[in-house]
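Re: that chain you flagged

S.,

Sorry for the slow reply, it's been a week of failed gels. I finally had a moment to sit down with the sequence you sent. For the record, here it is as I used it:
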Amino acid sequence: MRSLASRLPSKRRQRQLTYLMEVGLIGMLFVGIDRGNAGIVINTAVALAVTQLPPVLERDYEIPMDPRLTLWITTAVFLHAFGTVGLPGGTTTLYTDVWWWDHLTHALSASLVAAAGYATVRAFDEHADGVHLPQRFIAVFILLFVLAFGVLWEILEFAIALSADTFGIDAVLTQYGLGDTMLDFVFNSIGALLVALWGGAYLTDVSGAIRERFDSRAD
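Prediction finished late last night. Pasting the structure tokens below so you have them in one place:
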């Protein structure tokens, strides 16, 4: 059976897909400006800012960003932004029309949070001589880390929705009730578990670079 890495597109194709999604985000930004929709503008602008993190991390902090990691990050923010745009002239979006879209984007976004947590805690484990973190502990830590981040995110969504309602403006982020919030936590957990199980295979170089930065600061 072929490994997951062998089933992915070539590195050249991954870079092309990343570039196309970045161009798509720029297009969605202009769509939001044309419609006068603050939600689209803010979500796509934030997504575009996130897509610039990999080159910044690689250039300024010497953290290697494999094309598949860059594609992973770009896909997560692209799908979220795309879900807020909706069809031309329509009042609904993929978030409201496609029942699984919110679950997909939450799982992907949670996996990014989990990846950042995994790479950092793994680097700390390898850096500190007096610390040993078993793999099972790291898996539990990643799950709890993502759940805690998810709680903060839901509070932010609630605060934004409440503020938008108070001031009579469109909400940038929307909550769809208690049931939706609970499902968000479920799919956040799925994203975290995927990283806890397979993160070591794809984040070794990143955690190694972070460990080296820890080592250099300690010298």
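What I noticed first: The two ends are 45 Å apart (CA to CA).

Talk soon,
D.
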